């Protein structure tokens, strides 16, 4: 009975692995077939040397970094304050941070266009820099479920209240408490949230496309529509960026000292 | 004039009153303990003194200054927490120096003061260790050093020993008391352990349901409990109701009669001494240096403690004895 259930589990794992890996292997294999003579990394060479790739990837990386910075500045103090002073508001805040998963990106971006169009009271789509700012804000919204959950979990793993009170009794101001006591102790949680945010932003299509910004997502779509082998190479590159982000989350989570409620 | 005075302190959480009209005054350099069971309000009073809770009403004054609504940062009151509350990202030196850094002291002064206090709490050699690399006792000494180094006006200790094992607890309580005496530091200690309170304190405030049941010097609170609650909480007092007291001793009282177990003398069954009671040993427990007997006397079970000097001191169950209780050792409580 035991060996049957174990066999069943292995079959399920094998089917799952094949389901996920086969398309990737096929995509990778196809991306190596650009040269008729045999396998080569020609498609990757073409893609990586394309100025369009460099520009869009650079743009999306910058957007991701800005999103992470703004997200952390917004979420860490909010999650900290809710944990410390307003624990009753936690369900409401959790609900709000989950909304971007429930509301499709296209709905959010049409809302932005309606609110911030060039004839509105705050014309954020009036020029490129303002639209970049709007895109970054929309990415912060998109990243909220991941960033908030990650940071909130990190804060729950330490005794926020007692650490804050200890710092207060030693004369620390609120900025000092946040920067010197709270931030360093939720560093790995912040980094996990940051890498998740990076992975989400780097391949995002809908918002960048509808706001007309030169991001990596629309570039992927453009190449996919016009070329044969390069889209496969790009897909593998995008996967590698995501995997690298996930791998870094694991590295930081493993290197972080065990969470201590009391230290 | 007292150094710390608390007048009519009152704290309410929603509909629940946690502290009722709490009043106290402490002289500079005094070691005072709030003693009571969980939920009696002792930690809430401590947190109001530290500034972590705002009183519903009342006033707290330190050295003549009204600090009732001052922020914790400005009070100059040090606190040691039950859970240590060391900053996990900082080593021992950084933890201890944190308060001085917040006060913008220069590096040389921080290094000198931290070194002094590390020596004081006997943590030399652990300067670069992180909290997770230290034992519970060492962590609590770091927490104590961190609170002491900023030279607080008052030191608050919130059950600092309760998470430690018995041997370390005993050593650390002696060390805390010794340091407090050497520095002449006004200290308030919160505990639910009566032994800790008795061994460490100049004065004890026994608290129950948000009120002070009794306040006084340690020996007085122990030997002269004012209420039934204090008698029960402070030790293993024999508490006799009015009917039992009348039947056993022929005395008429209103509340309860409290008799300490060690004040009852056990005599030989053939003793000819006057004013003794006949009794039979029903049970005994060996508690190290003392033997605790349950002795039945006229249908009333009395607890009696005797020093365990030699193996022959142990009287077997069923032994007939006579009990002698001095009138001075009987105390009527409300």
Structural summary, described in words:
The complex is a heterodimer of chains A (263) and B (334). Helix content of chain A is 78%, strand content 0%. Chain A is an all-alpha fold and 263 residues long. Chain A has a single domain, classed as MetI-like fold, CATH 1.10.3720. In chain A, helix 1 (2-31) packs across helix 12 and helix 4 (90-102) crosses helix 6 (128-156). The longest helix of chain A is centred in the N-terminal third of the chain and has 34 residues, at 51-84. The relative contact order of chain A is 0.13. Chain B has 334 residues and is α+β, with helices and mostly antiparallel strands. Helix content of chain B is 29%, strand content 34%. Chain B has helices spanning 42-50, 72-75, 92-102, 107-120, 136-148, 166-183, 194-200, 218-223, 228-234, 242-249; strands at residues 4-13, 16-26, 31-35, 57-62, 65-66, 77-80, 154-158, 186-191, 203-208, 211-217, 238-240, 256-259, 264-268, 276-287, 290-297, 300-307, 320-325, 330-333. In chain B, a hairpin with a 2-residue loop joins strand 1 (4-13) and strand 2. The mean pLDDT of chain B is 91. The chains are: A mainly alpha (263), B alpha+beta (334). At the A-B interface, helix 7 and helix 8 of A face helix 2, strand 6, helix 3 and helix 5 of B.
Taking strands numbered 1, 2, ... along the chain, how are they ordered across the largest sheet of chain B? 6-7-8-3-9-10
In whole angstroms, how far apart are the ends of chain B? 32 Å
CATH T-level fold name of chain A: MetI-like fold
The radius of gyration computed from the alpha-carbon positions of chain A, rounded to a whole number of angstroms, is: 22 Å
- Estimate the mean pLDDT confidence of chain A: 89
- Quick check: average pLDDT of chain B? 91
Number of strands of chain B: 18
Order of helices and strands of chain A: HHHHHHHHHHHH
CATH classification class of chain A: Mainly Alpha
Structural class of chain B: alpha+beta
Question: How many DSSP H or I helices of chain A?
Answer: 12
The CATH H-level superfamily of chain A is MetI-like
Largest sheet of chain A: none
- As a whole number of angstroms, the C-alpha radius of gyration of chain B is 24 Å
Oligomer: heterodimer
Q: What's the count of strands of chain A?
A: 0
Structural class of chain A: mainly alpha
Question: What is the percent of helical residues of chain A?
Answer: over 70%
């Amino acid at each position: 009975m035991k060996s049957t259930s174990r066999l069943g589990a292995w079959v399920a794992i094998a089917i799952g692995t094949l389901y996920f890996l086969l398309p990737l292997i096929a995509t990778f294999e196809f991306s190596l077939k650009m040269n008729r003579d045999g396998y080569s990394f020609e498609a990757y060479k073409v893609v990586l040397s394309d100025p369009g790739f460099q520009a869009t990837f650079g743009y999306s990386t910058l957007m991701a970094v800005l999103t992470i910075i703004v997200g952390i500045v917004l979420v860490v103090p909010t999650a900290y304050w809710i944990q410390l002073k307003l624990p009753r508001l936690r369900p409401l805040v959790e609900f709000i941070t989950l909304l971007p998963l429930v509301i499709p990106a296209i709905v959010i971006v049409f809302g932005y266009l309606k609110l911030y169009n060039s004839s509105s009271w705050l014309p954020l789509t009036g020029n490129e820099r303002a639209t970049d700012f709007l895109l970054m804000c929309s990415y912060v919204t998109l990243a909220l479920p991941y960033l908030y959950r990650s940071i909130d979990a990190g804060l729950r793993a330490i005794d926020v209240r007692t650490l804050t009170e200890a710092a207060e009794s030693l004369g620390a101001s609120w900025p000092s408490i946040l920067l010197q006591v709270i931030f360093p102790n939720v560093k790995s949680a912040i980094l996990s949230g940051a890498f998740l945010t990076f992975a989400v932003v780097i391949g995002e299509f809908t918002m960048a496309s509808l706001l007309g910004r030169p991001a990596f997502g629309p570039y992927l779509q453009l190449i996919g529509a016009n070329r044969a082998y390069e889209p496969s190479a790009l897909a593998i590159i995008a996967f590698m960026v995501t995997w690298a982000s996930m791998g870094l989350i694991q590295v930081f989570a493993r290197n972080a000292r065990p969470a201590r409620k009391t230290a | 004039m007292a150094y710390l005075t608390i007048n009519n302190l009152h704290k309410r959480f929603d509909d629940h009153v946690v502290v009722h009209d709490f009043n106290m005054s402490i002289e500079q350099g005094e070691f005072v303990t709030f003693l009571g069971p969980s939920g009696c309000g002792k930690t809430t009073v401590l947190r109001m003194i530290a500034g972590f809770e705002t009183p519903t009403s009342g006033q707290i004054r330190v050295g003549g200054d009204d600090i009732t609504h001052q922020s914790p940062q400005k009070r100059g009151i040090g606190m040691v927490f039950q859970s240590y509350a060391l900053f996990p990202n900082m080593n021992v030196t950084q933890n201890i120096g944190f308060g001085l850094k917040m006060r913008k002291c220069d590096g040389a002064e921080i290094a000198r003061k931290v070194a002094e206090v590390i020596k004081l709490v006997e943590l030399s050699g652990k300067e670069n260790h992180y909290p997770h690399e230290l034992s519970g006792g060492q962590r609590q000494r770091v927490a104590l050093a961190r609170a002491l180094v900023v030279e607080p006006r008052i030191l608050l200790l919130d059950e600092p020993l309760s998470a430690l094992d018995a041997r370390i607890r005993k050593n650390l309580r002696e060390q805390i008391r010794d340091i407090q005496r050497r520095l002449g530091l006004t200290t308030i200690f919160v505990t639910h352990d009566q032994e800790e309170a008795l061994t460490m304190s100049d004065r004890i405030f026994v608290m129950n349901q948000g009120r002070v049941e009794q306040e006084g010097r340690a020996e007085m609170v122990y030997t002269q409990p004012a209420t039934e609650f204090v008698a029960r909480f402070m030790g293993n007092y024999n508490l006799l109701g009015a009917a039992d007291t009348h039947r056993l001793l022929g005395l008429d009282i209103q509340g309860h009669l409290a008799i300490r177990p060690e004040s009852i003398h056990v005599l030989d069954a053939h003793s000819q001494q006057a004013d003794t009671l006949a009794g039979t040993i029903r049970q005994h427990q060996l508690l190290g240096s003392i033997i605790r007997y349950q002795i039945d006397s006229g249908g009333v079970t009395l607890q009696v403690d005797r020093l365990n000097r030699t193996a022959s001191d142990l009287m077997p169950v069923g032994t007939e004895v006579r009990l002698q209780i001095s009138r001075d050792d009987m105390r009527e409580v409300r």
